[in-house]
Prior knowledge:
Blueprint: H1 5-15, E1 20-26, E2 29-34, H2 35-52, E3 59-63, H3 68-79, E4 83-87, H4 93-102, E5 107-110, H5 113-122, E6 131-134, E7 148-150, H6 151-164, H7 168-175, E8 181-186, E9 196-200, H8 201-214, E10 222-224, H9 232-245, E11 248-251, H10 258-265, E12 269-272, H11 274-290, H12 293-314, H13 321-342, E13 349-352, H14 359-367, E14 372-376, E15 386-387, E16 400-401, E17 406-409, E18 414-418, E19 425-426, H15 430-436, E20 443-451, E21 457-462, E22 467-468, E23 478-479, H16 481-489, E24 494-500, E25 507-513, H17 515-524, H18 532-536, H19 539-556, E26 567-572, H20 592-598, H21 600-608, E27 612-620, E28 626-637
Parallel strand pairs: 1-11, 3-4, 3-5, 5-6, 6-7, 10-11, 12-13, 13-14, 25-26
Antiparallel strand pairs: 1-2, 8-9, 9-19, 14-15, 15-16, 17-18, 18-20, 20-21, 22-23, 24-25, 26-28, 27-28
Helix pairs in contact: 1-2, 2-3, 2-6, 4-5, 8-9, 11-17, 12-13, 12-14
Amino acid sequence: MRTTFPQLLLKHASERPAAPAMREKEYGIWQAHSWSALASLVEQLAAGLHQAGLARGEHMVVIGTNRPRLYATMLAVQSLGAIPIPLYQDAVGAECVFPLNNAEVRFAMVEDQEQVDKLMEIRSSCPQISNIYYDDPRGLRKYDEPGLDALDTLIEAGQAFASQNPSWFRDEVAKVQSGDVAAMFFTSGTTGNPKGVVHTHASLLDRAMAGASFDKLTHAEEVLAYLPPAWIGQNIFSYSQWLACGYVVNCPESAATVTIDLKEIGPTYYFAPPRVFEGLLTSVMIRMEDAGSLKRKLFAACMNVAKRVGPALMDGSAVSALDRLQYAIGDLLIYGPLRNTLGFSRVRVAYTAGEAIGPDLFTFYRSIGINLKQLYGSTETAVFVCLQPDHEARADTVGVPCAGVEIKLADNGEILVKSPGLFQGYYKNPAATAEVLTADGWYHTSDAGFLDAHGHLKIIDRVKDVGRIKGGVNDGAMFAPKYVENKLKFFTYIKEVVAYGDGREKVCVMVNIDFDAVGNWAERRNLSYAGYSDLAQKPEVYALIKECVEKVNADLSVDTLLAGSQVSRFLVLHKELDADDGELTRTNKVKRGFIADKYKALVDALYEGKTSQFIELQVKFEDGRTGSVNATLKLDDAKTFAPLKAAA
C-alpha cells in the first residue's frame, strides 16, 4: 500500500472533479461538496495551519460531529505530515485532559461553542494549547481568548498563501509516505487512562481496501456518517473507505434528525453498532403496538412468514414456490414499507460490530430483506479482521478472516491476530504495547473464541469475563456475561443489562428498562408514572421484565455449554447507566467492574436473597451539575429450567 489519504483526495479530484464527495444538511437542505472543491478547501486549511506553525509529526485534535470541514481539517493535517486525533464530542472536559497532554497537543479544531467552552474549562490543565479554531461561530462573537479564532479566518490566510505558492500543497502531499503515522485513536480507558492507538496510512488503507474488495464497494455507494468520528468504526467506513473508494459521505443536520436523514439519503452501505439496530426495532415495535388490531394481526402473520422464509432467501437457499409467494405478498404489504420507514430501501450491505448482537435481532433484519452482516475487529486492528460473506451470515459467528489476516488460538482460547492492519503500538506506552503485541507480530485480542468447521470465527466473550459458576447445582458451568446480556437486550423493553456470576453459585442481573418502550407499554395499560425511577419500580414493570428473563432462561436451558448461565435473580435499576457517570464507555460498553463497585450494595443484596435494598448515588446532570439520587429497589427471583439436550 503505497498511497496516502491526501494522495487519494487529489486522485479523486483529478479524475472526477465535479462528482460529489460529501453532502451536509443545513436548514433542511442538502448541500453537495465536489471532490475538486474539497481538495481546494484542504489546500487552504493546510496552508493556514502551516503558517500558524503546525509541524510535521505534531498532533492536532479534532472534536465535533460529522461535518465536511472537520473531515477537510483531518486531511489538511495529514497533508502536512502531522497527525489528527479525533476525540469524542460528548466527552466532558476532564476526559480530554489526558489525551491532550499525552500527545502534547498545541492545535485544536472544534465544531462549536460547546466544544470551545470545554477546552476553555481545561486550558489551565493543558497549558500547551496555543491555537483553537472553531467551525460554527454562533455564540462566540464576544469571546476574547488568546489563540481562539474562526476556521474561516484560517482558511482566508491559507488561501492567500496557496495562491502565492501554487505548487506548495502538492509538494507537501508528496512528502507524506504510506508508512507515516496517519491518525491516533484513544481507547475508551475502561481500566485506567485511555491509550493512544497509532495507525499509519498503510495500515488504515490496507484494511479499508480489503473490506471494499470483499463487498465489491464502488464510488457509487452512499453512506450516512452519523456516529462519532472518534470511533474507529465510523472513521473506517466514512473516512478510510470513503477515500479508498471515492463514494459519497452524507452528514446529517443533527443527532435529532438522523432518522429522517437516513430515509432521505437511502444509503447503500450502512454501519451501526447493535445498540442502533435495537433502537430502530424498538421504535417499530412501539408503533405496531399503537396500531389497530387488524394491522397488528397482519404484521404478526407476515412476520411469521418472514422469520421462516426470509433468512433462507437472503442466504440463497431453496424455498418452495408457496413460501416464495407468501413472502412476496409480505414484502408488498409489510417488509418493503418497513424497510422504507427505517431508511433501508437501498441498502446493499449493512454491518454491525462493536459488540455481539442478539441472534433474534440479527435474524429479524435479515428476515425482512436487509443484508445485515457481522464483522469482527478492534481499534488496534483497523476494524477489518473477519467479515461475513453474502449468503453465509449467521448470528453465532462473525465471519471468516478477510484478506491478509491470520488467526490462531492461545491455550486459554484467546484469539490472536496477525494482519497488515495492525497498529504500530500504544503512544508513549511500550509496556502496554508489549502486553498485546508479540515480537513476531501477533496481536492479543483479549477475546475468547474459536474457528468452527466452516472457517467462521465464533466469539464467546472477553477472556477476562468468561468465568465459571462456583457452588450450587451448576458448579463448574461456564458463565459468559455478555452472551446473557445480549439475549436479554433483544427484548424491546430492556435497554441495558449487567450480569454477574463468575465465582458465585448463581447468575444475577441488573436491568435498565427502555423508557420509551416501557412508557408506551404502561400508557396503553393506563398505568400512571412520574418519571423513569417511578416507572422502573412499578410491580407491573417487574412482572414484564421477569417474563423476559424467564424466556431467556428457557432458551439457555437447551444450550449445553451455557445452561448454567440462567438468571436466578434480578432487579431493575432506578436510573439509566450513563457514560457521564462512568458506568459506560463513550462507545456505550458496560464497565462491569466499575458498576460492581459502585452498586456493591445491590449486588450483595441480590446474592443475599434480599427482597429490597436502599441505595444512594452521586450523579452528573446534563448541565454539568452533580447531585444525588436515592431509592429503595425491589429484588426478585426468576424461574430457572433444568438443562435440556438441544434438539438434533
